Protein: Putative 2-succinyl-6-hydroxy-2,4-cyclohexadiene-1-carboxylate synthase
Organism: Testudinibacter aquarius
Amino acid sequence: MAANGEQPKPCLVFLHGLLGTQADWQPVIAHLPHFHCVSLDLPLHGRQKATRVADFAQTGGYLAEKIQSAVGGKPYWLIGYSLGGRIALYYALQSQIERGYLQGLIVEGANLGLHTEAEKQMRWLNDQTWAHRFATESPSVVLNDWYQQPVFANLNMAQRQALVEKRTPNCGVNIAQMLLATSLAKQPNLAAKVRSTDLPIRFFCGEYDQKFRAQAQQNQLNLTLIQQAGHNAHLENPDDFAAKLTALLV
């Protein structure tokens, strides 16, 4: 029960990105003591490495089961980063499953979807290449290349190396499988639904993340900038992320 006549705060359910685990959100959750926070492992990640999914529909079903188990019939907000954000958008706007008392989304650095078949084909080929590498190469080699992608351009050498070391235990065939199951090439473009839905959706973005700042501008998204952070804003500045989230929900 909330004290002093306050309305009870909603539960917060967090989804990590590709290669991550539920532990990725702990630095943010540490700043949210007045909320009931739940951080989930996605399929094929962390403690759910053995849980396989083939597509977005199965991933949405998995998510619905985990949320029901964690929060029951309580109202909740869903917060997702990158792949976790794309899954959250699909779950809220595209899937036909029961979503309980979903109050809104906070989406960090997540793509709304591709526009043309040519873009989807190019992305599918790119994801197949990465999947083959994740399945067959040394984690340190493929991860070093993964974090050289333009979206991670703001990271320095020490930050990249720290991420490589952090992600190595989770890296392997499981990541290849998840990358193909939830490829951006398979995701419907959700931009129109984002603009038309009555569900509150707020987009969080690191101030240095030029790619997703541009997406927000092009689609006139409801954007909150996280200071001194790039694509992985909640990792790079958990204090500001938690403060902005609290300001939005309190």
User: Anything to note?
Assistant: DSSP finds eleven helices and six strands in the chain.
